[in-house]
Amino acid sequence: MDIKYDLGSYTRVLKLASTPSWEEFSRIALIAGAGIVLIGFIGYVIFTIMNTLPGLF
Hints:
Elements: H1 3-16, H2 22-56
């Protein structure tokens, strides 16, 4: 493990990183929010099916 090499790599990555523009940030937030809503909807559908099926038989 070469600590000097590792620190140099981390420094190089941090120099390349930049803060996103407002447009890029809002697009990422919108996509992430849509994914969360979609996963929640799928979970709700599965929950509803699992609660409804035992009552039918």
